[in-house]
Input
Amino acid sequence: MSKDSVKLLNFWPSMFGLRVHYALDLKGVSYDYQEESLSNKSKELLEANPIYTKIPVLIHNGKPICESLVIVDYIDSVWPGSHKLLPEDPYEKAVARFWADFGDKKLHDAGDRLIRAMGEEHKKAGEDFKWALMKIDEALGTIAPGKPFFGGDAMNFADVGLAPFICWFKGYQKVGGFVLPGPEEWPNLYKWVDAVNSVDAIKISTPSDDKVTESVEHYRKSVTGAA
Amino acid sequence: MSKDSVKLLNFWPSMFGLRVHYALDLKGVSYDYQEESLSNKSKELLEANPIYTKIPVLIHNGKPICESLVIVDYIDSVWPGSHKLLPEDPYEKAVARFWADFGDKKLHDAGDRLIRAMGEEHKKAGEDFKWALMKIDEALGTIAPGKPFFGGDAMNFADVGLAPFICWFKGYQKVGGFVLPGPEEWPNLYKWVDAVNSVDAIKISTPSDDKVTESVEHYRKSVTGAA
Output
């Protein structure tokens, strides 16, 4: 592993970039980090991801891998190690992939509308965001009853796909003008949040809620003019 | 394999459902088929996919698997057989996953706007659709130079992800009011289309271009009122 060249091109608040951080850090893989400016992307990023021109990109021994869940899958194949993220059992693996992808399809989609939309569409985004978290609470109770993670006692592919949204919860509530239900209503979700936040490998790259919130508020203002 | 109960819930023109057909048929897996009406979904579908309430769903020995690329991945794990869809090499696997996902992110997205949008947004959708096909032509030339498929001499995960769009090309052009460049401009793409269309396992479930086109025109009319 010591001879590998591993580099992550990223923009710090990105939940997609955090997925890659989490996967690498859970595996204990050493890597270089390059912070990108989204308004002035590096030549390296544009050449490494010519299709989407987006972060994150992992460059492993000169080869670029793009799209966060594809990257996490790649990391799990190259460095299986002692912390395998994808279950061996095909059905359990499909369940883990389904919930990681749910982060893209529902949490990110609703979150993006919380930042960009106004009026009824903005209100609907808040409802959709809360619905998505309720479904995650229910799923945790069904898939891993009594356990903290989708992966049971340790984070798996679903956890890595969804955990990066945790540091955005405060910002989404702030720009959405709503307050999420508490642990009484969503016990599995809050147990999961506490478990994720107590994993040392996760702490390494997770920005503070306040720093993310400031960034989210700034971004909403820049795209909508709304305070 | 003979003791397995395998059932596909689907709606015939769906490119997502066709992915599942293609994966099962390439593997030679026997399965039951249940056609769904999108305006009157079966109780079985709603219970099997409570999160998205969408086709396709594969029900294997009573367990539902949802989301087309998750299903194709599952099929490849359960029935690896002689036709493996995902490459063993982690980088080649990541490339295959990237291009299958490109079908969702770019082809389907642009195609959906070709059906639903009007005016400038509709025109932009046509440009985006052509851009996506151009990128597929380029990718084929880079990933599998001189070979017919993303998978080289046989279809892989990327081919299964993208091939279902082929029978939609005519319909997209019809409702988009544009004509795609020909084989002189996109030699790799057209070589790939011919290769896909000549695979016996693909012919089993692929509806005719004309039947899909009729469905696409009907759908655009129903959502926009446009002829």
Notes: The mean pLDDT of chain B is 96. The radius of gyration of chain B is 17 Å.
